[in-house]
Amino acid sequence: MKTIVYQSYRGNETPNWLETCMQTVKNWAELKDFDYQRVDNFFDYVPDWYIDKSQGKINVIADLARLEIAKKFLEQGYEQTIWMDADVVVFDPDNLNIETTEEYLVCREVWLDTEDDKNFGEGEIFCTEKVTNSLVYFTQKNSFLDFYIYGTKSLVKNQQGRLSRLAVSTKFLSKLHEIIELPLFMNMGLFSPILMHAIVEDKREIIQLYQQTLKSPIYAANLCLSFRNQSHKGIMVTDELFQETIDKLIQTKGGMIN
Fold first, then answer.
1. Which residues pair with 126 in a beta bridge?
2. Is the dihedral of CA 100, 102, 106, 112 positive or negative?
3. Which of 63, 117, 230, 245 has the fewest C-beta atoms lying within 10 Å of its C-beta?
4. Count of CA atoms in the C-beta half-sphere (13 A) of 107
5. 27-69 residue pLDDT tens
6. What would be the CATH architecture of the domain defined by 3-252?
7. Report field, pTM of the whole predicted structure over 0.70
């Protein structure tokens, strides 16, 4: 089927590790004979009122833009569209496949962390499962895309007070999943700073906790660019941490996480 994979990144600089991530996605698309496009004029697909209401949160703007662009590609004749976040690294391209009879997919999220008020090493580490849009997949006949666009616009339009950067992505999709059980793509991970630290330092107990929660192999991972150059739970999220995580994943084809 005629398929396009698309991504975007809008920032003052593009670190080398992020370029590596996007290149792995492009290479994967080529391996699967999919078209690939990097769309960086995201603001062109989002109405001005929505940008104004987004409170400067690029994530919220990108959440709507990826949907509007998917709709455009489907109207242009593509039978399938696949969005992946810019900070997704594909480390086992041969095994990463989207083989489904579903009309659309959003992404299962497993997040490894400590309690909000505890730094790494101070409290229990645990995993939570949610739903995210780091990968979204739509087919021509899907019944979800228009609803998701409507829901996204409505949530932002009616927001009172501070808007969470996850308002129309993880928070909305996770709540919706509790009600209607959305179809999920299960073979992508979401790596928190603590998990990336565990991978780089080979902390097996932490990695095994994540593995047990996954319950299925992963062939790609979202590396959470939003934490870049910040301290999270006592871990400084540097470009070196991202790069070393990527290197280990690619070298082992994810063997150390699966």
1. 113
2. negative
3. 117
4. 25
5. 999 999 999 999 988 889 999 999 999 998 999 999 999 999 9
6. Alpha-Beta Complex (3.90)
7. yes
